[in-house]
Known about the structure:
Layout: H1 7-70, E1 75-76, H2 78-90, E2 101-110, E3 113-122, E4 128-129, E5 155-165, E6 177-185, E7 194-195
Parallel strand pairs: 1-7
Antiparallel strand pairs: 2-3, 2-5, 3-4, 5-6
Helix pairs in contact: 1-2
Amino acid sequence: xxxPTSFKARLSFLHQAAHSRGAQRGVSxxxxxxxxxxxxxxxxxxxxxxxxxxxxxxxxxxASTLGDxxxxxxxxxxxxxxxxxxxxxxxxxxxxATNPSLVVASVxxxxxxxxxxxxxxxxxxxxxxxxxxxxxxxxxxxxxxxTGLFATNGGVVIGEVTLQYTSLGTSFMSxxxxxxxxxxxxxxxxxxxxxxxxxxxxx
Length: 203
């Protein structure tokens, strides 16, 4: 666009240019108002998903740690399980607000069917208790395990971690998500892992 040479024409030209810039600023403001909420939601959403994935991986690592430590001996007591649980909970750092459910169980073949011989849930104070009646690792329940894992007259140790996950920062996710992982191990020092105070065949 060429600039007019007359004074009047120049004033008209400047007025049109100013009007054009103002219109452009107005359009930009409207576009920003429309796009900003979406961009903010995407930012918080990405942060929440990243955080949830990180916690889920810690649940997996914790279940592996719980079962592996329990399987490294031939007999455990409630005190032993509490110490193992303390190590397992440290896996969740720096998410110290989490309160996962930790369960250790021993499964053995009854006939050709893998069934739970004993199972204990370890609470945050170091106490142990039988899992509740609705839990899949309740004593006597059948567990789907490859029978090839069992040694003769032996058992398999299960470490299970369950976490009711809610947002730890952004609150972008309003509902609670259950994260659960379970690992299976052969006992290292004996055919099966025994629990002090609990009588099972071979213990």
